[in-house]
């Protein structure tokens, strides 16, 4: 499990700009929303697209899920629960890298 | 040895916090260079001033706006024509330069009357132009002029005109980054929402953080238009003053340069609920991914795939030809900040080029998080690099090509190393599919040009050594 989480985290680190938004709250929001929707797509479920923000997160999630599937073949054989467990691990690790242990001194500045 | 102190920095050891060499297994929670902080006295910084960040980078791009520089004439001249951003308005913004041209007497007695006179004069000379941005500079900020009051008076006296004032003198921040910030926040708070756009499509976006360097904007616009998407405001490539006032009506903000314009995208999200989608617009792989994301947002996936297929068919064979010849070449990127993280994977994935050193003039720690996450192990990452550090990096990494600005470029050329203008390009545009082929072509032409070797030969006599050589390198 840990290896699979790290594999996907490495992928996200190299490809995704949404993890690096300006402030901690933006990053937390993106990590939670985009990875939840990515898990939905990987599990064969439609991600919610009720609001404009949902649609934006879903756009990122669809592309990420597609890349995950093509570059990490083990995901094709993974069950829904396994996918959600792995993605939960990815979320925790991304929060650690991009928010909790980030050395970026501007993350908690109140204004943009 | 993650953080690195160059030999040349022995007398300014504070520089160690700004230089990082990535080791295997490391991530940005362990090491992150200090950045967006004061330049250390004694270092030969390559940074620009804060006023320059507002005027040269963002405001000066507008194709229908008088750029009134309230200060000594040098502030206007030095931020004119040093970036090549054309427009479809006869390149109006490149043809003219405006300045109040203040002198010592104005420092003593004030320059507000002069500003008012010159603003009227500019509008009189160009009666078809109704929009203006006034910039303060170090001098006029220090003497306490109030350009906003002057602008209000002029707007009352000349109905139909609209003036935006940027109060960001050169000393306002540590680099040009402060100018980006001030202009972004000033514009969203004062001008966005003051005009309604003409909506022509069900799908509307703001394209944020692209300044039409040698036609970049035209590339991106072409793709989005073919997908049926209307760009309400392009911040600020080939843009008009008024289209930027309508940004509040877009359904999505597509962000390219998050450093210079992330602020306005964040505020559009906060104030108007417009979501922000960050993409990379350089490189085949990245551009395709960006279009796919925009397509996914609007339900225009088929349209996005059609554009990608057409462009790939058109340009991929040329890209592959260059890739064969560029594979394994070593590249340095010494530019402002965002191009480091936009380009490092793009040139590696699409061209097989290895980026061995990157330096940022005005990037923040966010930019270093991005570039270190994307960059290679063993690559050197530097904030606000100085000349001597550049020489030392060249000695360490032996690059085949260096992308940097004209100032550092002159140093590089004297070492007979292929150089490409990383800010304004050699023969752009570089964005999009066609653009990336242009970039590859410029790299190929630079690396394979015989000029660099010939320039190192001393033609005065047969066995004389080249005068210029790297420190520690033996004469040939």
Explain how this protein is built.
The complex is a heterodimer of chains A (112) and B (476). Chain A has 112 residues and is mainly alpha-helical. Chain A has one domain (2-100). Chain A has helices spanning 2-15, 24-42, 52-71, 74-77, 80-100. In chain A, helix 2 packs across helix 3 and helix 2 (24-42) runs antiparallel to helix 5 (80-100). Chain A starts with a helix and ends in a 12-residue tail after the last helix. The model of chain A has no long low-confidence stretch (mean pLDDT 97). Chain B is of the alpha/beta class. Helix content of chain B is 42%, strand content 14%. Chain B contains 18 helices and 14 strands. Chain B has helices spanning 50-58, 73-77, 92-95, 104-109, 112-125, 138-142, 147-157, 177-190, 216-226, 258-272, 284-298, 301-326, 338-351, 365-374, 387-397, 406-414, 432-448, 451-455, and strands at 19-21, 65-70, 98-99, 131-136, 162-166, 203-210, 229-236, 252-255, 276-278, 330-335, 354-360, 380-383, 401-404, 419-421. In chain B, the strands form three sheets. Chain B has a six-stranded mixed sheet, sandwiched between helices. Chain B has a four-stranded parallel sheet with strand order 3-2-4-5, with helices on both faces. In chain B, strands 7-6-8-9 form a four-stranded parallel sheet, sandwiched between helices. Chain B is globular, with a radius of gyration of 23 Å. The model of chain B has no long low-confidence stretch (mean pLDDT 96). Classes of the chains: A mainly alpha (112), B alpha/beta (476). Chain A binds chain B through residues 13-15, 17-18, 20-23, 26, 52-53, 55-60, 62-63, 96-98, 101-106, 112, and chain B through 27-29, 31-32, 36, 185, 251-252, 258, 262-263, 266-267, 270, 273-280, 289, 292-294, 296-297, 345, 364-366, 369-370, 373-374.
């Amino acid at each position: 499990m840990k290896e699979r989480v790290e594999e996907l985290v490495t992928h996200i680190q190299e490809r995704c700009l949404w993890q690096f938004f300006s402030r901690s709250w933006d990053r937390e929001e993106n990590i939670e929303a985009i990875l939840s929707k990515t898990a939905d797509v990987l599990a064969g479920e439609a991600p919610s697209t009720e609001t404009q923000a949902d649609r934006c997160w879903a756009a990122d999630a669809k592309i990420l899920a597609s890349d995950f599937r093509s570059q990490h073949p083990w995901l094709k054989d993974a069950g829904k629960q396994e996918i959600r467990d792995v993605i939960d691990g990815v979320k925790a690790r991304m929060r650690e890298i991009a928010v909790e242990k980030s050395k970026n001194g501007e993350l908690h500045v109140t204004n943009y | 040895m993650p953080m690195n102190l160059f030999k040349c920095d022995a007398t300014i050891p504070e520089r160690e916090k700004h230089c990082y060499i990535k080791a295997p297994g490391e991530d940005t929670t362990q090491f992150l260079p200090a950045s967006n902080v004061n330049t250390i006295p004694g270092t030969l910084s390559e940074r620009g001033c804060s006023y320059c960040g507002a005027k040269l980078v963002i405001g000066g791009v507008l194709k229908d706006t008088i750029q009134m520089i309230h200060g000594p004439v040098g502030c206007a001249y030095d931020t004119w024509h040093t970036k090549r951003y054309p427009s479809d308005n006869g390149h109006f913004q490149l043809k003219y330069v405006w300045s109040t041209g203040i002198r010592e007497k104005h420092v003593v007695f004030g320059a507000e009357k002069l500003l008012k006179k010159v603003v009227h004069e500019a509008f009189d000379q160009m009666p078809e132009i109704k929009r203006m941005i006034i910039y303060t500079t170090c001098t006029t900020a220090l003497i306490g002029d109030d350009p906003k009051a002057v602008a209000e008076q002029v707007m009352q006296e000349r109905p139909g005109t609209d003036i935006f004032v940027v109060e960001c003198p050169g000393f306002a921040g540590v680099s040009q980054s402060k100018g980006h910030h001030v202009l972004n926040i000033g514009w969203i708070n004062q001008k966005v929402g003051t005009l309604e756009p003409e909506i022509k499509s069900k799908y509307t976006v703001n394209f944020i953080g692209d300044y039409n360097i040698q036609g970049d904007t035209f590339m991106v616009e072409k793709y989005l238009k073919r997908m049926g998407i209307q760009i309400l405001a392009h911040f600020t490539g080939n843009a008009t003053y008024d289209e930027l006032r309508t940004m509040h009506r877009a359904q999505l903000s597509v962000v390219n340069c998050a450093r210079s314009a992330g602020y306005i995208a964040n505020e559009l999200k906060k104030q108007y609920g417009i979501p922000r989608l960050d993409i990379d617009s350089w490189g085949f792989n990245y551009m395709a991914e960006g279009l796919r994301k925009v397509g996914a947002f609007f339900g225009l996936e088929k349209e996005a795939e059609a554009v990608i297929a057409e462009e790939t068919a058109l340009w991929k064979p040329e890209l592959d030809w260059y890739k064969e010849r560029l594979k394994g070449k070593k590249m340095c990127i010494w530019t402002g900040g965002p191009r480091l993280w936009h380009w490092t994977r793009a040139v590696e994935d699409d061209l097989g080029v290895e980026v061995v050193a990157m330096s940022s003039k005005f990037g923040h720690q966010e930019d270093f998080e991005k570039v270190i996450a994307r960059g290679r192990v063993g690559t050197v990452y530097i904030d606000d690099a100085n000349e001597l550090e550049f020489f030392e990096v060249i000695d360490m990494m032996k690059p085949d090509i260096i992308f940097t600005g004209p100032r550092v470029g002159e140093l590089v050329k004297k070492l007979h190393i292929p150089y490409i203008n990383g800010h304004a390009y050699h023969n752009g545009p570089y964005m999009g599919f066609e653009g990336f082929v242009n970039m590859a072509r410029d790299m190929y032409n630079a690396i394979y040009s015989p000029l660099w070797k010939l320039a190192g030969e001393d033609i005065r006599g047969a066995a004389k050594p080249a005068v210029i050589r790297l420190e520690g390198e033996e004469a040939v």
